[in-house]
Amino acid sequence: MSSSSNSKSDLISVVIPLHNEALNVKLMVLALTKALKDLNYEVLFVNDGSTDDTSNQLKKLNEKSVTVIELDKNYGQSSAIAAGIDFSKGNYIVTMDGDLQNDPYDIPWMLEILKNKSLDLIAGFRKERKDPFFKKIPSIIANYIIQILTKTKIKDNGCALKIFNETTAKKLIFSGEIHRYITTISFLNGLKIMQVPVNHMPRKFGKSKYGLSRTFKVIYDICLIILNKKYSNQLFKLKEKNYSVKNIYYSCNKLTKRNSIQFQT
User: Fold this and answer.
1) Whether pTM exceeds 0.90
2) Where are the domains of the chain?
């Protein structure tokens, strides 16, 4: 699909949370550089308390479009996404995983649809998942439970590849594991959303962070979402986000470090 309507004046912020993804960092940057060559973009890597070589690999990057946000400990994916969104400057904000399973080439055409249809959110669903059986089953069960409890038809809550307009993204309250349900929550709150099939790649490096135990957590989380929707008028708000940034590196070819940034809301 053509991306002719994507204007250079629009800045696209790509937010990528990372936890122990050292072997994927350089490959991710190369993939983004090729896929987004016709767009004006920034990449915000959020290092969520990695204990491997992720931090060092991020510091070796030689890309002026890259900003590295280092959290002072592991807060979880939702808080890491929140940090990236809070520091983003784009008109449109992309979220995706750092494990190379999302395809950056899906971003331009998804962005065009978001603009043309004036959507608040466009979310991918993995039509042909390249995951082992033991990982697919919990996801299938979780999506089925969510559909039953919320009476929605969201096909794939677990797909990380999403694009928001800036206004929508900045309103989101990411906390706990809420990133898993943000498409369903957006729908329940009356936002204009669309689901589209996207590519999915097999994981080459690193380990999956999810398993069967996630299914039981889904039931609890969805009950909270339903109660929140029923009894609260605050958009998406389950609890306050809380994270602390240790360092930010701008333009990684010549590091500029700002120390001891505390960001709590």
Assistant:
1) no
2) 11-261
